[in-house]
C-alpha cells in the first residue's frame, strides 16, 4: 500500500508519475463520462409523444372538443400533482396530461386562425376580393408538369397572411388569416429564379421578401388538401407586379442581401454546382432542375437540399471542434486556437445559431432544424450520451407546442426519426462493427447511414411509393463532401456582400464537393436497380418496417460469417447494377434479336427501333425522363443515330432529357408544325445544350442504318396546307394531325408508327401516294394511345397482325377505347397494351412474329 503525503508535504514532492493531460481531463470529467454506461433517461419521451399526437389530432377538431380535452387534462394533471403521498408514477402521468392540455390549447388556437374573420366565408363563396397581405415565406416558382398532352403552366407560390380585406361597401376589415397565394405566370421572356421564363409581373413576385406587405386583387378558392395550414388559395394574375404597401423588415432585408449575394457568387459555376450550392447552404432549391431533383429523390439524398440540423452542426463543429472533445483540454476548432474560453465559445455558438435562423428564414422548418441541430450538438459536447434523448424529446415538445402544424409534417417526422436513429441505434451498430474489426470512422459512417435509413425508409415509402436500394452507399459517398461544401458555401455567403470576387473564389472551391454530390445522385439514380416499387400507404410502411427488422436480425448473424457477407454483397450489387447479359438470362428481357420495343412510360409514347448492338432509333420520348431513361437502359441502348419526335405534345417530348442522358445522339427530327410553342422551345433548348442538330421530317424521306430502313409517309412537304397527289390536303387542326408517321422495315417485318394521327389526317394519308404501300403491315403502333378517333378504312387497309397501344394505367381519357380494340381484333390483330402488359418487344422475321413483355 502506497504511503500518501502528509499535510505538510507538497503535492509535487510525491513520487507518483504525472498522468498525461488527456487522462487528467478525463478524470475531471469522470462524473460526466460514467453516466454513459447507465440506463437511458426516457422520462421526457412520453410527454413529447403525447403532445405530438394531441397536436396532430386537435388541429381540425371542433372548438368545444378541444376545450373539453384541454380542461379535463389540465384539471386531472393538477389534481395528481397536488395529491399527497409518494410521487413516483403519479407525477409522470401528470406530466403527460399537462403536456396534452398544452398541446390541445395550442392546436386549438392555431386551428382557429383558419376560421377567424371574413376570409373563410369568402373562400367558400369563391369571391374576388381586394386585400392587403403580408408575405410569410420566400416565393417559389413551381415547375411545369405534364398533364395529358400539354404542360400545365407554372405558378409562383407565396405563403402569406391576409391582414386587411376590403368589403363590398368599401369598409376595410382587419384580420390575420393564412392563405396560399398562387400567381399565374404571365407571358414574357424575363428569366425567373431557376431559369424558367416568366413574365415581368411574375418575376417581380419572385423578388418579394418575407414581411413585405402588398395589395392584391385575388380570387379566393378552397384548398385541394384537407387539413392544410391555410384557409384557402388566393389566385392572382401575374401580368402585373404586386403593389407594395410596406417594405420588408430590416432583418429580412439583411437576410435577402446575403442570399442574393450567394446566388450572385454561384452564378458563374457549372450547372449542377450552381443549382446545388444554395440548397446545401440555405435551402434555396429554386435552381434545381426536375432531372436533378428526381435523382436526389431516387437516392434518398433530398435531405441535403433542405435546411437541416446537420448544416448548423457542421458550422458549430468548425467553431468548437469535434463534439466529443468540447470540454477536454485537447479540444480543437477555431475557438480554442484563437484562445476563446469555453463560455464565450458557447455565446458565439448561440450567435451563429441565431444568424442561421435569420438567413435561412425563421419559418417552422428552419426553427426545427436549428433546434434539433443545436440540441444534438450540445448533448454531444457534454460527452453524456444519456442526455441525448431527453434533449431531443425537449426539442420536440417545445417545437410542437410552438407550432402544432409540425405534428402533421412529414419533414418533421423524418427529422426526428433520423436524429433518434443517430442517437440510439447508430452508436450500438458502430460498436458492433468495430468489434468485428471495421475501422472506427468507417464503422460510424456505416452505422449512421444504416440506422437513419432503417427508421426513415417506411415514411419515405409512404411519400414516394418506392424504396431506394442505393440510399446507404450514396449517402456514404456524399457525406464527406457535405461538410466542405457547406463550410465554403457559408463563407461565400458571409463574404459576398463585402467582397464578391472573394465570394466567387470560395464558391468555385465549394463547387467541387457540390458537383461530387450531384454526380453521386445522378450515378445512383441511373442504376437499373436503384429502387423497387412499394405500396405507398401506411400498411406498406408497416410491411417495410417488418422487412427491415428481419434484414437487421439476419445481418447480425451474417456478420459472424464474412464469406456469407461477401456473397450477399455481391448479390446486392448484381441486383442494383443488373448487367444486361445477366438480366437477359434471368428475366428474358430484352429478348435476343428484338427489333421493335414499346416502352412503358405511362400516358405517352416512347418506342425504339433496334439498329445494331447497343444502337437504336428512338421515336418519341414519353412524358417522364426517368421512365424513358430506365427503358433505354434495360434495352442496352447507348447510341442513338436519330431521335424522331412525331409532334410536340408534352406526352411525346417531355421525356427528352432522359433519352439524351449519357447517350451519343446524332440528330433530332421533328414535325414542321411547331405547336405548342413552349414545347418547341423546350426541345430546341435541350438540343442546343448538347449541340445536337434539329431537322424536319417530310413525306418521301428515306433512311437506313444497318438492317433497319424507314420511310417518312406523313406529313407531306406542303403540309400545312397543301396538295398531295392532286387532292387537297387539310390543314391540321392541331399538332396530332401533323404527326410524323413512319413505315419501317426490319428483318423482313413491316412496322407502321402513326404517332397521334386523327381521322382527317388518317384519311388524307390513305389518299396520298404512300397510301398504296400501307396494306398488310406486320406491326401497327396504334395512333393516339388507342383513342376512339380512328378511321375504320385505315384499320382495314393496314390489317396488322399485331397492334400495340401505349397508354397509362387508369388514365382519365379512357384510352384505349373499347371500340378501337374491337375493330383491331375484328381484322385479326392481336392487341397488346402497355397499361396491362408492360413494356413490349417484337421479335421475329418475315415468317415468324412474337412479342415479349418486359
Q: Can you describe what's shown?
A:
- The protein is α+β, with helices and mostly antiparallel strands and 854 residues long.
- 46% of the residues lie in helices and 17% in strands.
- Strands 21-20-18-16-15-14-31-32 form an eight-stranded mixed β-sheet, with no helix packed on it. Strands 22-23-26-27-28-29-30 form a seven-stranded mixed β-sheet. Strands 1-5-6-10-9 form a five-stranded mixed β-barrel.
- It starts with 20 loop residues before the first helix and ends with a strand.
- Mean pLDDT is 82; it is low at 1-37, 187-195, 324-330 and 719-728.
Radius of gyration: 32 Å
Helical run tally? 31
Beta fraction: 15-25%
Main pleated-sheet profile = 8 strands, mixed
Topology, number of strands: 32
Seen as an oligomer or otherwise, the chain set is single chain
| Helix/strand structural class | alpha+beta
**Any idea what the shape is?**
globular
- List low-confidence stretches: 1-37, 187-195, 324-330, 719-728
Question: How far do the termini sit from each other?
Answer: 81 Å
Helix content: 40-55%
As laid out across the biggest beta sheet, the strand order is: 21-20-18-16-15-14-31-32
Q: State mean pLDDT (0 to 100 scale).
A: 82
Amino acid at each position: 500500500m502506497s504511503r500518501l503525503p502528509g499535510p505538510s508535504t507538497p503535492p509535487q514532492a510525491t513520487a507518483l508519475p504525472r498522468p498525461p493531460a488527456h487522462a487528467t481531463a478525463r478524470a475531471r470529467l469522470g462524473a460526466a463520462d460514467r453516466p454513459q454506461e447507465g440506463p437511458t433517461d426516457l422520462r421526457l419521451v412520453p410527454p413529447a409523444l403525447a403532445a405530438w399526437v394531441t397536436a396532430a389530432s386537435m388541429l381540425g377538431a371542433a372548438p368545444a372538443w378541444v376545450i373539453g380535452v384541454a380542461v379535463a387534462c389540465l384539471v386531472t394533471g393538477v389534481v395528481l400533482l397536488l395529491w399527497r403521498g409518494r410521487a413516483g408514477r403519479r407525477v409522470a402521468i401528470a406530466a403527460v396530461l399537462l403536456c396534452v392540455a398544452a398541446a390541445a390549447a395550442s392546436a386549438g388556437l392555431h386551428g382557429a386562425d383558419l376560421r377567424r374573420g371574413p376570409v373563410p366565408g369568402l373562400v367558400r363563396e369563391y369571391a374576388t376580393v381586394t386585400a392587403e397581405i403580408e408575405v410569410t415565406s420566400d416565393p417559389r416558382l413551381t415547375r411545369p408538369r405534364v398533364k395529358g398532352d400539354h404542360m400545365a403552366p407554372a405558378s409562383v407560390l407565396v405563403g402569406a397572411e391576409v391582414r386587411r380585406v376590403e368589403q363590398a361597401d368599401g369598409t376595410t376589415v382587419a384580420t390575420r388569416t393564412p392563405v396560399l397565394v398562387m400567381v399565374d405566370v404571365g407571358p414574357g421572356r424575363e428569366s425567373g429564379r431557376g431559369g424558367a421564363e416568366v413574365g415581368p409581373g411574375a418575376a417581380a413576385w419572385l423578388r418579394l421578401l418575407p414581411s413585405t406587405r402588398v395589395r392584391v386583387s385575388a380570387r379566393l378558392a378552397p384548398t385541394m388538401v384537407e387539413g392544410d395550414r391555410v384557409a384557402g388559395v388566393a389566385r392572382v394574375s401575374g401580368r402585373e407586379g404586386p403593389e407594395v404597401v410596406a417594405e420588408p423588415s430590416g432583418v429580412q432585408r439583411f437576410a435577402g442581401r446575403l442570399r442574393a449575394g450567394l446566388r450572385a457568387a454561384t452564378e458563374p459555376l457549372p450547372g449542377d454546382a450552381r443549382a446545388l450550392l444554395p440548397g446545401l447552404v440555405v435551402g434555396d432549391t429554386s435552381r434545381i432542375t426536375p432531372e436533378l431533383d428526381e435523382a436526389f429523390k431516387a437516392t434518398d439524398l433530398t435531405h441535403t437540399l433542405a435546411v437541416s440540423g446537420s448544416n448548423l452542426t457542421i458550422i458549430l463543429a468548425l467553431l468548437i471542434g469535434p463534439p466529443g472533445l468540447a470540454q477536454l483540454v485537447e479540444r480543437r476548432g477555431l475557438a480554442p486556437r484563437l484562445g476563446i474560453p469555453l463560455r464565450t465559445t458557447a455565446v458565439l455558438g448561440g450567435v451563429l445559431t441565431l444568424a442561421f435562423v435569420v438567413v435561412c428564414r425563421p419559418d417552422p422548418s428552419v426553427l426545427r432544424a436549428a433546434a434539433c441541430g443545436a440540441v444534438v450538438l450540445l448533448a454531444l459536447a457534454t460527452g453524456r450520451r444519456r442526455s441525448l434523448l431527453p434533449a431531443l424529446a425537449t426539442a420536440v415538445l417545445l417545437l410542437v407546442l410552438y407550432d402544432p402544424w409540425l405534428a402533421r409534417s412529414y419533414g418533421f417526422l423524418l427529422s426526428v426519426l433520423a436524429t433518434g436513429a443517430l442517437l440510439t441505434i447508430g452508436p450500438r451498430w458502430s460498436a458492433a462493427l468495430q468489434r468485428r474489426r471495421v475501422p472506427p470512422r468507417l464503422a460510424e459512417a456505416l452505422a449512421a447511414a444504416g440506422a437513419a435509413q432503417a427508421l426513415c425508409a417506411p415514411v419515405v415509402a409512404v411519400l414516394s411509393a418506392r424504396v431506394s436500394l442505393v440510399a446507404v452507399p450514396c449517402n456514404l459517398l456524399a457525406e464527406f463532401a457535405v461538410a466542405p461544401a457547406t463550410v465554403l458555401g457559408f463563407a461565400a455567403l458571409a463574404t459576398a456582400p463585402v467582397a464578391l470576387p472573394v465570394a466567387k473564389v470560395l464558391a468555385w472551391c465549394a463547387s467541387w464537393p457540390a458537383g461530387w454530390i450531384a454526380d453521386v445522385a445522378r450515378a445512383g439514380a441511373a442504376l437499373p436497380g436503384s429502387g423497387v416499387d412499394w405500396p405507398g400507404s401506411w400498411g406498406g410502411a408497416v410491411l417495410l418496417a417488418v422487412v427491415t427488422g428481419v434484414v437487421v436480425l439476419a445481418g447480425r448473424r451474417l456478420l459472424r460469417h464474412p464469406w456469407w457477407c461477401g456473397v450477399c454483397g455481391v448479390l446486392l450489387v448484381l441486383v442494383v447494377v443488373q448487367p444486361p447479359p445477366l438480366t437477359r438470362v434471368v428475366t428474358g428481357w430484352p429478348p435476343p434479336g428484338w427489333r421493335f420495343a414499346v416502352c412503358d412510360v405511362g400516358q405517352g409514347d416512347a418506342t425504339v427501333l433496334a439498329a445494331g448492338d447497343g444502337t437504336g432509333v428512338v421515336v418519341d420520348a414519353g412524358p417522364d425522363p426517368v421512365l424513358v431513361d430506365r427503358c433505354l437502359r434495360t434495352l442496352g441502348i447507348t447510341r442513338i443515330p436519330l431521335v424522331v419526335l412525331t409532334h410536340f405534345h408534352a406526352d411525346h417530348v417531355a421525356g427528352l432529357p432522359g433519352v439524351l442522358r449519357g447517350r451519343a445522339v446524332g440528330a433530332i427530327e421533328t414535325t414542321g408544325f411547331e405547336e405548342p410553342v413552349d414545347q418547341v422551345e423546350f426541345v430546341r433548348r435541350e438540343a442546343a445544350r448538347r449541340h445536337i442538330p434539329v431537322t424536319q421530317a417530310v413525306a418521301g424521306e428515306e433512311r437506313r442504318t444497318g438492317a433497319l430502313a424507314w420511310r417518312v409517309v406523313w406529313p407531306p412537304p406542303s403540309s400545312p396546307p397543301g396538295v398531295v397527289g392532286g387532292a387537297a390536303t387539310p390543314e391540321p387542326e392541331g399538332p396530332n394531325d401533323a404527326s410524323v408517321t413512319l413505315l419501317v422495315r426490319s428483318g423482313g417485318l413491316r412496322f407502321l408508327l402513326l404517332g397521334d394521327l386523327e381521322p382527317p389526317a388518317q384519311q388524307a394519308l390513305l389518299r396520298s401516294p404512300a397510301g398504296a404501300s400501307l396494306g398488310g403491315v406486320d406491326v401497327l403502333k396504334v395512333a393516339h394511345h388507342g383513342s376512339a378517333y380512328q378511321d375504320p378504312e385505315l384499320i382495314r387497309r393496314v390489317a396488322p397482325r399485331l397492334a400495340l397501344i401505349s397508354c397509362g394505367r387508369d388514365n382519365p381519357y379512357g384510352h384505349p377505347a373499347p371500340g378501337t380494340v374491337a375493330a383491331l381484333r375484328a381484322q385479326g390483330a392481336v392487341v397488346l397494351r402497355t397499361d396491362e402488359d408492360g413494356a413490349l418487344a417484337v421479335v421475329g422475321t418475315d415468317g415468324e412474329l412474337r412479342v415479349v413483355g418486359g
